[in-house]
Amino acid sequence: MIPALEHIPSGCAAAGIMNKSGVCISGDAIMDMMSVMHSRSNGLGGGFAAYGIYPEIPDYYCLHIMFDNDSAKREVDSLIEENFITERQEKIPTRNIKEIKDPPLLWRYFVLPKPDKLVAKNMDANDFVVRLVMLINTRIPGCYVNSSGKNMGVFKGVGYPEDIGRFFMIEKYSAYIWTAHGRFPTNTPGWWAGAHPFSILDWTVVHNGEISSYGINKRFLETYGYECVLLTDTEVIAYTFDLLVRKHGLPLEIACNVVASKFWKDIELMSEEERKLHTALRMTYGNLLLNGPFAIIVATNNYMMGLNDRIKLRPLVYGKKGDFSYIASEESSIRKIENNLEEVHSLVAGKPLKVEVNKDVCA
Amino acid sequence: MSVLDKLLPEFFIKVDRELCIKCGQCVKNCGFSALMQDKDKNVKPIHEKCVACQRCMYVCPTKAIQVINFPGTQKNNEYWKPEYIKNIKKQANSGGILLTAAGNDKPYPVIFDRLLLDACQVTNPSIDPLREPMEIISYLGEKPIDISIEFRDNKYVLKDKLKPNIKLNSPIIFAAMSYGAISLNAHKALAKAARECGILMNTGEGGLHRDLYEYSDNIIVQVASGRFGVSPEYLKRSAAIEIKVGQGAKPGIGGHLPGYKVDDEVSSTRMIPKGTDALSPAPHHDIYSIEDLAQLIASLKEATDYSKPVGVKIAAVHNIAAIASGVARADADYIVIDGFRGGTGAAPTMIRDHIGIPIELAIAAVDDRLRKEKIRNKVSIVAAGGIRHAADMAKALALGADFVTIGTVALIAMGCTLCQKCYTGNCSWGIATQRPDLVERLNPDEASKKLVNLIRGWSLELKEIMGALGINAIESLVGNRERLRALELSRETLDVLGVKPAGR
C-alpha cells in the first residue's frame, strides 16, 4: 500500500548502457556498473529497465504489475480480461535471497487491446494502454503497473540495486539497452512502486535529484489526463515525455527544451525564428519545466538519453566504446566495465545527449 | 446646531508651542483645512476636520505637530464599537449611505498570514539569485494547449501563430485606478514606472489622458459600465483591453465620481460634461448574461484586429469559480479576480466591509476549476485586492495566480497614508484629488522613481523567495501549492486552498 506520506525526494545513482547495433547483453554489466556506486543508494530502492528482453513476443504490450495481495490481482485480472487479448501471463521469476524481504506478487501479462474496445473508445492502442495503466494505479488499491511497453520491462523494488538485480535474476535477461537506479530517499521509507525506473508505455526514466517544481508539474499533467499516484517526483518526468513526444509530436530535443528550458537571456540572443519557438515553448509548457536538481536517463525502444537540469546540479557522465554507449552518475561506474573508452565527458547543463539504436534494430 | 447633530472628532491635533516655529507649512499642506493660523501665526487645529492623512506631521520641520486618536473616550464596549456609534449618528443626521475609501480594513482572518512558504535543505540545493539566473518574466494572455513544429532549413520552427500575449518583466500590474479618482500626475507616475519596469499600468475606467498616449505599450485600458473615454483611439492606445465587470471593494455596485472632481481635463478625457457626476451603472447595460459578455469581448477583439489580449475583471464572490470558467469560455484572454480587500476611491461602507470573499480562496478555487475543466491555458489569472508585500505576491502565485496587481501599495509608495478619504477630493498628497493646488504637490518623476524602486525591491524579494524554494523560473512557482503549508486553517479551508497543513 501507499505509505502515509506525500511525494518523496530522492538522491541516487543512475546508469545506462546501450548497444546501437542491437546486440543484447546480460544484466551482469549493468549490475557491475551499479555496484561501484553502492554508497549513492541506501537500500530503500533499486531497479532496472531492459529493452529487447522479450524477442519471442515483441508485438505485445508487456504489463509488469506488482500486487500487494491476491484480491488486488483478481480485480486487475478481470480488468485485463475485459479489455485485452492476453497472449501469455506468468509470475515474474525471482530468486529468494535474504536481503529482499516481503516482496509483493510480481506478474507479467503480454496483451493487446481488444479491437472492439478501441473502436468503442475511439482511441489508439497506446492511449488505451496509458488509460488502463492510470486506471489500475488510481482505482485499484494495492497494485501498480511498473511498465507497459513492448519488448521491454522494468524490474524494481525495495533494496540495494545489486540485491534487486539478483532477486529478479536480471543476469538471465539479454537487452540492448539497460538502465538502472539505486535510490537514496531521504525522508521516507522506500516502497516497491516508488523505486525507479518509472515508466509508461516503453518510456523509462531513472532520476537522480529532486524536482522542486513537482507540485505544478503534477497539476499541469493532470489537465492532460495523467494521474500521478506514485508519490515520487520522477513519475512526472515519464508522463511529461509521453505527453510532449508521443501525444504532442514534439521532437525529443524540443521536449528537452521544455523540461530544461533555455534561459530568457539566451533566448533573447537567438534568431527571430528560434526566439519565437523557444518563447512559445515556455509560454505553453512553462509548467513542465523540471526545476531543481536532476540527472536523468530516459530510454525507449529506440534510444537512450541523458539530461541534466539547466544549471547542472547533479552529475552525469557519458562514455563511448564501439557500439556501446554508457551514461552514469559517476565515471567510475562506466570505467568499471569498460576502461578503454574512446570518448568520455560530463554532460552539459540542460543539453540532452541522445544515443540511438540503428534503424534495423527496432522496426 | 443642536448637540444631537454633533459628532466627536475622530482625531486630535496636538501642537507643541515650544517646538513650533510658526512657519505655516502644516497649514498650507493640510488639504482638509483642519489647521489655521491666528494673527500671531499660532497654529490652531480644527480637530473635527482632521482625517489623519499625516501630511502636517511629515512636513513640519521641527516635528511640533502630532495627530493622535481623539483621547475622549466612550465607555468601553467590545460590541458597540465607537465606529458603529459614530456611523449611526452620521446616518441619523444625513439619512444617507455611509461612504468610505481604500480597502476593507475590518479584522477578518487574513489567510495570507496563515500560509508559509517552503525552502530547500540538503536534498535539493537552494539557488543563489545573486549568482544564478532567476527568471520572473511572465506573459499575459491566452496560451495554446500544444504547439506544432516543423523542420525547415535544417532547423525546427514554430508552425502556429500564438494568440497575442504581453511580456512583463515582473508578474506585477499597477491596479486599475481611474484618472478622475486619482490625479493626472499620479497616472503619469504609474505609466512612467510601468514603462521603466517593463510591466503594465491600468487606466481604470476614466479614460486615457492624451499625455499618456506615449506609454501605450505599457497600458491596459479599461472598458467599464460607464464607458468613460472609450473610443477607437483609446482602444488602440493600449497593450491590452480590460472589461471591468466588478471590483473587490464594491462587488455588484457601480461607481460614482463626484462632479467636483470633474474638471476640464477629466471632462475631456472621460468625454462627459465638466462638473457632472460620473456615474458607472452597477451592471454593464449591454451585459446581462455571459453570452452578452462574450459578445463584448468579441467586439473589442474585432475592433482592435485581434492584436491584443482582452481581459475581464470580476470581483471575488461566492460562485467565483464557475463565473471565471464562464468568462474563460467567453474568450477572455485573462481574468482579474479582485478580492474583498481590494481598494477603491469611494464605496459604500456596508458594501466594502461585508461583500465578497478573500482573494486567496478565490484564486485557489478558480485555478482548480479551470484545471479541472482543462481550460487553464485559455486565460492568465491575475490576483488583485490586498496584496501587501512580496511574500503575499509569492503566496498568491503559488496558489495559482499568474500575476498580481497592486493599487494600494502603489499609492503608498507615492505618499498615500491610507486616511481613506479619497472620495472627498482633498487628498493632501496630490494623489486622489483634482484640486490644482494639491495635484501639483505630486511630482510625477519623483513618484515614478518611488514606484520603480518598489517594483525593483519586490522583484528582488520574489527572486530570493524562489531561490530559497530551489526554483529559478516563475513558471515553477505559479500553481505550485506543494511549496505552501498552512498554519491553523480549518480542514475545509485547506481543502479549498489545496494546501497541506504545516508539518505534513
UniProtKB/TrEMBL annotation, chain A:
Start and end residues of each Glutamine amidotransferase type-2 domain: 12-358
Highest taxon above the source species: Bacteria
InterPro entries cross-referenced by the UniProt entry: GATase_2_dom, Glu_synth_lsu_1, Ntn_hydrolases_N
Molecular function as annotated in GO: transferase activity
Active site per UniProt: 12
Assigned keywords, A-Z: Glutamine amidotransferase, Transferase
Name assigned to this protein: Glutamine amidotransferase class-II
Species this chain originates from: Thermodesulfobium narugense DSM 14796
UniProtKB/TrEMBL annotation, chain B:
Domain 4Fe-4S ferredoxin-type, residue spans: 11-40, 41-70
Keyword Iron-sulfur: yes
Enzyme Commission (EC) number: 1.4.1.13
InterPro entries: 4Fe4S_Fe-S-bd (IPR017896), 4Fe4S_Fe_S_CS (IPR017900), Aldolase_TIM (IPR013785), GltB (IPR024188), GltB_archl_type (IPR043578), Glu_synthdom (IPR002932)
SUPFAM superfamilies assigned to the protein according to its UniProt record, in alphabetical order: 4Fe-4S ferredoxins, FMN-linked oxidoreductases
Protein keywords: 4Fe-4S, Amino-acid biosynthesis, Glutamate biosynthesis, Iron, Iron-sulfur, Metal-binding, Oxidoreductase
Gene Ontology biological process terms, A to Z: glutamate biosynthetic process
Xref: Pfam families: Fer4_21, Glu_synthase
One annotated GO molecular function: glutamate synthase (NADPH) activity
Binding locations of [4Fe-4S] cluster 1: 20, 23, 26, 60
Record keyword Oxidoreductase present: yes
Family, as annotated: Belongs to the glutamate synthase family.
Annotated protein name in UniProt: glutamate synthase (NADPH)
Species of the source: Thermodesulfobium narugense DSM 14796
